[in-house]
Write a structure and sequence with these properties.
The structure holds two protein chains of two kinds. Chain A is mainly alpha-helical. Helix content of chain A is 76%, strand content 0%. The chains are: A mainly alpha, B mainly alpha.
Chain lengths: 139, 280
């Protein structure tokens, strides 16, 4: 997001007005929050669109019996673009969103020269990755 | 189990309710979703997997709005996430070492105590804990401010005792890793009681954090093939809608109202934990 672009929300304007009064650093921090907020919004809206498309197709179209496919199984049908694969893709987008959130935070902290928080964000990423690998090994 | 349109609609509605409450209270909603799904006849493992995905939807959906409103504090969130994620890892490693029944009883007592503290704080005027204008918040830069429409003015805040908050978050992470219970119910009291953050900042920042905490489990459940498309889709969709509604309501609520509701939620969690502690 470039500096010239103004967020559409009215609430952000209030926060900005407050920042303009204080000629300190918070301006930068607020941009960090705006960018992460936009990223989360895009992730959630994309996921919701895919889920809604897949789901309405399933509900108004063919009925499924039994336990239905898992996300992995449904993704196999992505080439033929069946409704279940669309919904499964929505789930993947949803799970990818916090991953992108963390990585983007690290980049933004780096651009703010906030090394402490670049470090802390990367530590969180490392712990989450270890957790996923470790529990998979145990289970 | 048969997936009918009616069943999918029921899941969608359950998701909306869980999303609204989750985003208001800083919970993932697992506390609500898992019991609702098991009542509907869903297998517990599939219910847990679906609820973890829903937690991410609640978190991402409401954190997006809370960041824009200045309610969720990214630095507090990242700082405390180091504690919760490493705690969860420790919990996963310790799983089976410590008796779960004892833990359920101990933590229902801890949560009961937090509930009492939070209930008492309800009547404390917010102005007393507001820092003076020049906020010096040290190396961690955890302080912040937000516009409170309920008070019709800006509120500044500076967390107290970040070390204690960090330690409690580690414990909260360990407990959620060990017991598989919603960590939001533990995160909010830790921020509220130990760090004296404004209640709305606590629930909003908890929302920002729960998606990160849930991430590792979500990846594992996906890889293990526990996430059923027809089960998770309507819930995740409903939760997304619910979170969008809840996160727009929160700024306009009085802090005391949020506190009172949270105490009710704590009571439900304590009851669940006591039940599992007693029955095993």
């Amino acid at each position: 997001m470039s500096r010239q672009q103004r967020p559409p929300a009215g609430r952000m304007e209030t926060a900005r007005a407050f920042d303009d009064r204080k000629d300190l650093a918070p301006e930068k921090s607020h941009r960090l929050e705006e960018i992460i907020s936009s990223l989360l919004r895009v992730g959630v809206l994309t996921a919701a669109t895919l889920l809604a498309a897949g789901l309405s197709w399933i509900v108004f179209g063919a009925s499924t019996t039994g336990a239905g496919p898992t996300v992995g199984e449904a993704l196999a049908g992505l080439r033929s673009l069946d409704p279940e694969s669309l919904a499964a893709l929505g789930v993947i987008v949803l799970v990818a969103t916090p991953i992108l959130q963390l990585l983007t935070s690290a980049v933004l902290f780096w651009r703010e020269h906030d090394r402490l928080y670049v470090g802390l964000t990367l530590v969180v990423c490392a712990i989450v990755a270890t957790g996923a690998l470790l529990t998979r090994g145990v289970a | 189990m048969l997936y009918s349109s009616g069943f999918e609609l029921a899941l969608l509605l359950a998701g909306i309710v869980a999303g609204i409450l989750g985003s208001l209270m800083g919970l993932g909603g697992g506390v609500l979703i898992i019991p609702m799904l098991t009542v509907l006849g869903v297998d517990i493992h599939h219910a847990i997997a679906a609820s973890i995905i829903a937690v991410i939807a609640t978190s991402a959906g409401s954190a997006s709005t809370y960041l824009r409103q200045g309610l969720a504090n990214i630095r507090v969130g990242i700082f405390l996430s180091v504690a919760t994620t490493s705690g969860a890892l420790a919990g996963a490693v310790l799983n089976g070492v410590l008796p779960a029944r004892t833990l359920f009883l101990v933590f229902s007592a801890v949560l009961f105590w937090s509930g009492v503290v939070m209930f008492h704080k309800r009547s404390r005027p917010a102005i007393l804990i507001e820092p003076p204008e020049p906020v010096s918040d040290g190396r961690l830069r955890l302080g912040g401010h937000f516009y409170d429409p309920a008070l019709e003015r800006e509120r500044r805040y500076l967390p107290r005792r970040p070390q204690l908050g960090f330690a409690l978050m580690f414990v909260a992470g360990t407990v959620s890793g060990l017991l598989g219970i919603g960590s939001g119910a533990l995160k909010v009291p830790a921020m509220d009681v130990a760090m004296d953050l404004p209640i709305k900042v606590s629930t909003a920042t908890s929302n920002y954090m729960i998606g990160i905490t849930a991430l590792a489990s979500a990846v594992v459940y996906l890889l293990q093939g526990q996430v059923l498309v027809l089960l998770v889709s309507p819930i995740a969709l409903g939760v997304t809608g619910g979170a969008a509604i809840g996160s727009r309501i929160l700024p306009h609520l009085k802090a005391s109202t949020v506190r009172a509701w949270f105490v009710v939620v704590l009571a439900v969690v304590v009851a669940q934990m006591l039940f599992r502690g007693i029955t095993g």
